[in-house]
From TrEMBL:
An annotated Gene Ontology molecular function: NAD binding
Name of the protein in its database record: NAD-dependent malic enzyme
Cofactors, names only: Mn(2+); Mg(2+)
Organism: Tumebacillus algifaecis
Superkingdom as given in the UniProt entry: Bacteria
Keywords assigned by UniProt, alphabetized: Metal-binding, Oxidoreductase
Amino-acid positions noted as binding (S)-malate in the UniProt annotation, renumbered to this chain: 363, 392
Active site location: 114, 169
InterPro entries xrefs: ACT_dom, Aminoacid_DH-like_N_sf, Malate_Decarboxylase, Malic_enzyme_CS, Malic_N_dom, Malic_N_dom_sf, Malic_NAD-bd, Malic_NAD-bd_bact_type
Residues reported to bind a divalent metal cation: 211-212, 237
Family: Belongs to the malic enzymes family.
Details of cofactor binding: Divalent metal cations. Prefers magnesium or manganese.
Domain ACT as annotated: residue spans: 12-86
């Protein structure tokens, strides 16, 4: 499955052409012969010997684009300077920037926003550190922190390569919930160092969104930070995914007429997302869950080095089954994939119970191609934006943090997460509910407000909100 399903693959070949021989004619001929579609040409530069042109070409996929490039490079008088595409162009120079809220037009304004008058603000915060929430960006700013070790399903690609995802998360925090977020990729994989760095930067932020940190280190990092910091710490791949998954599953069950407590559920990929999704489902009343990772089904017949797998063995797989995915998927009502592409086959789907519910959530490529799976499933969901039923943590992380920041919560607890799941599920009405609409779109504005309010209400109910309710409710 091509990653560019919605975006379409439109490549831009920057070519340096010799003026002498009919080189542009050759370019058009080569591209035509190879089945590319020229949709535009821009002249970038011309001198007496050469011209530089950007040739915009629709191709089938990246491999097709490469074949055309190779053919062009072989031709006399044509030099391929660069090959880019719309996605690449959207990333030039990064996707976000910082802007001031106040213009500084003269010395008087300068003296207020900066020295000398800013000193009075510093002193006020020094006297009462809680004023940082009122007088600095802490009020509405989150750090999105990764070490680049579990980036989407791409794995350990390092802190530099992780930045586009973290910038993307920051961008989405702002666009979907008005939260300012800053991407921070740490050049260390050491648990203690990560904890120390995050603690050291925490004064500037009202919350910490941990992202794409591999398991099992992510569990300890989050647990320690939750204990040692007084602002919410939320590992998005765990809890964001689990919140949205539960919302989708509640609605899918309503559609197929099954109850959560009667379901047989198989989860593949027992990492950050798989463990959190399982915990959330147990909390919501699901009783029969089996986990499958690379070495097979997690059972009580084994001792695991990974303490989370030990926990998993003790809390799931009620019949203590062993084997592979093929063994346990038989008769399952629900498949939840947070592992990688190609894990699920048509044979697996054919062996599931009636009305199979398949949430293949690995990014960027799900456990099975949804087009291949479609004839064999009743409800199909992926993590992607280009198919119906997008089960992606994007549907909740901006609004959960918005709610937590607005009531100055010290934590994002289980009650707040459950409230968020119910709020998401309830934005799909009974009339709207269908195989292709179990979960609202990320662009549905009702979702952000519903989740934010549900999270705030749960924060006050469970005593983690630190803003006086009167101050909060007066502004509503
Ligand atoms: N849709 C969403 O909102 C969402 C959210 C979080 C994660 N994800 C996706 O889920 C996947 C896992 O993310 P994570 O943060 O939990 O990563 P992780 O590294 O913590 O865990 C991944 C786990 O999957 C296992 N795994 C990998 N390939 C497997 C295979 N072929 N068979 C069985 N197990 C396999 C690994 O051994 C590991 O235990 C990624 O593809 C990620 O993009 C999707
Ligand atoms: O980034 C996403 O789209 C979802 C999730 O956080 C992931 O890691 O795949
Ligand atoms: Mg992620």
């Amino acid at each position: 499955m091509a990653n560019e399903r919605t975006a379409g693959l439109s490549l831009i070949y920057r070519l340096e052409l010799q003026n002498s021989s009919n080189t542009f004619g050759k370019v058009a001929q080569i591209i035509g012969e190879e089945g590319g579609d020229i949709i535009g040409v821009d002249v970038v530069h011309v001198d007496k010997d050469h011209s530089i042109r950007d040739v915009n070409v629709n191709v089938f996929d990246r491999r097709h684009g490469k074949v055309i490039r190779e053919r062009l490079e072989e031709a006399e008088g044509i030099h391929v300077v660069n090959l880019s595409d719309r996605t690449m162009l959207m990333h030039l120079g990064g996707k976000i920037e910082i802007r001031s809220k106040i213009p500084v037009r003269n010395r008087d304004e300068l003296a207020r926003v900066y020295t000398p008058h800013v000193a009075t603000i510093c002193e006020a915060i020094h006297e009462d550190p809680s004023k940082a929430f009122k007088l600095t960006i802490k009020k509405n700013t989150v750090a999105v922190v990764s070490d680049g070790t579990a980036v989407l399903g791409l794995g350990d690609i390092g802190p530099y390569a992780a930045m586009p995802v973290m910038e993307g998360k920051a961008m989405l925090f702002k666009q979907f919930a008005g939260v300012d977020a800053f991407p921070i990729c740490l050049d260390t994989k050491d648990t203690e160092a990560i904890i120390a760095h995050i603690k050291a930067i925490a004064p500037a932020f009202g919350g910490i969104n941990l992202e794409d940190i591999s398991s099992p280190r992510c569990f300890e990092i989050e647990a320690r930070l939750k204990e040692e910091l007084d602002i919410p710490v939320f590992h998005d791949d765990q809890h964001g995914t689990a919140v949205v998954l539960l919302a989708g599953l509640m609605n899918a069950c309503k559609l197929v007429g099954k109850q959560l407590e009667d379901l047989k559920v198989v989860v593949t990929g027992i990492g950050a997302a798989g463990i959190a999704c399982t915990k959330m489902l147990l909390l919501a009343g699901v009783r029969n869950i089996m986990g499958v990772d690379r070495m097979g089904v997690i059972s009580r017949n084994h001792e695991y080095e990974n303490p989370m797998w030990q926990w998993y063995a003790e809390h799931t797989n009620p019949n203590n089954l062993e084997g592979t995915l093929s063994d346990v998927i038989k008769g399952a009502d629900v498949f939840i994939g947070v592992s990688g592409p190609g894990v699920l086959t048509v044979e697996h789907l054919q062996s599931m119970a009636q009305d199979p519910i398949v949430f293949a959530m690995a990014n960027p490529n799900p456990e099975i191609d949804p087009d291949v799976a479609a004839p064999y499933v009743r409800v199909m969901a992926t993590g992607r934006s280009d198919y119906p039923n997008q089960i992606n943590n994007l549907l909740c992380f901006p609004s959960i943090f918005k709610g937590a920041l607005d009531c100055r919560a010290s934590d994002i607890n289980e009650e707040m997460k459950l409230a968020a799941s119910h709020a998401i599920a309830s934005t799909v009405s009974d009339e709207e509910l269908s195989e292709h609409y179990i979960i609202p779109s990320v662009f549905n504005k009702k979702v952000v407000q519903a989740v934010r309010l549900a999270v705030i209400e749960a924060a006050y109910r469970t005593g983690v909100a630190r803003r006086r309710y009167r101050d909060y409710s007066d502004k509503q």
